[in-house]
Design goal:
64% of the residues lie in helices and 2% in strands. The chain has 302 residues and is mainly α.
């Protein structure tokens, strides 16, 4: 059956999807911490009162794994940068590896991403870009933690992040050029005869607006695809061990085939994990860089 096959699409994707529980080793079942390897997340409020047909599901206020991880990342960002802001405001020279690391990353986003992409008024967008970078990075890195998960591997999360960028683009462009001016500015300036302009410019406007929407949609899909693909590959490599263990002629863990496949799977998973660690930083940078480019295009004329 597909559900019993660790290499089935349902099983592999199940390890990357959001859930109402945390998947932990079944060892914790002995202590009553988990049940069948699952630690259930409590429901805040049961609006159905036990009747599944009473009200629609969103009113149940069910917390999920990705929700808790996102809240944890947000709290960590607030705590770390509140501490860092108090240090910077004191006027002291940066001391310690932690202070220097975070300040170096912030300055990199400011000097190598925001200012070249947006221009002289880039600093007013820095709070958004800094927040986006570290939030995406935190969600990506938690995907490397066993039994946790990466919220950026869910389309619902990445599309909301992309919508935040889209909102900043539209609002900042409208504040700079006015609402009509912003949408008018989507058509590049062209010296065309009036009859030709009447014919071409409406079509160019539609193409540019559709392109604007597509760019932000792709922004969400790019982050989703890169984070999801890495986790699926890891799941495939580890699942090979379960497949070999289920073979009838493999009677023990000391079987040569079991040892060979286990070593290859573990070494492959370690290598992919190192790549995933690099991708976690890279995708946070790319998401922030593209957001800065889109904002820069919105606040400057074509």
């Amino acid at each position: 059956m597909a559900g019993d096959n660790p290499l089935s699409p349902e099983s592999l994707i199940g390890h990357t999807k959001d859930a109402t529980y945390f998947h932990v080793p079944k060892f914790f079942d002995r202590f009553g911490i988990s049940e069948h390897g699952h630690v259930e997340i409590p429901q805040l409020f049961d609006a159905r009162h036990g009747d599944p047909n009473a009200v629609i599901e969103p009113l149940d206020f069910q917390l999920t794994k990705f929700m808790l991880i996102e809240v944890f990342v947000a709290i960590c960002c607030v705590a770390i940068f509140s501490w860092l802001a108090s240090k910077v405001s004191s006027g002291e020279r940066p001391k310690g590896s932690l202070w220097n690391t975070f300040e170096g990353m912030l300055l990199f986003i400011r000097d190598q991403v925001a200012r070249p992409s947006i221009g002289h008024d880039a600093d007013k967008f820095l709070p958004f870009l800094w927040t986006m970078f570290f939030f995406v990075l935190g969600c990506n890195l938690l995907g490397m933690v066993p039994w946790a998960g990466s919220p950026t591997g869910a389309f619902a999360v990445t599309i909301v992040l992309a919508l935040c960028t889209f909102a900043i683009v539209v609002i900042s462009g409208s504040m700079t050029f006015g609402v009509v001016g912003f949408w008018k500015n989507q058509v590049p300036h062209m010296d065309l005869p009036l009859p030709l302009a009447i014919f071409l410019k409406p079509m160019i406007f539609v193409i540019e607006v559709v392109g604007l929407l597509i760019k932000h949609f792709v922004l969400a899909v790019r982050l989703l695809a890169n984070m999801l693909a890495g986790h699926v590959v890891l799941a495939v490599l580890v699942a090979f061990i379960s497949v070999v263990a289920a073979l009838e002629y493999v009677q023990s863990y000391s079987h040569p085939l079991m040892i060979g496949v286990s070593l290859a799977s573990i070494l492959g998973a370690v290598a992919i994990s190192m790549l995933e660690l690099f991708v976690a930083f890279l995708q946070a940078y790319i998401f922030t860089f593209l957001s800065a480019l889109f904002i820069g295009a919105a606040v400057h004329e074509h």
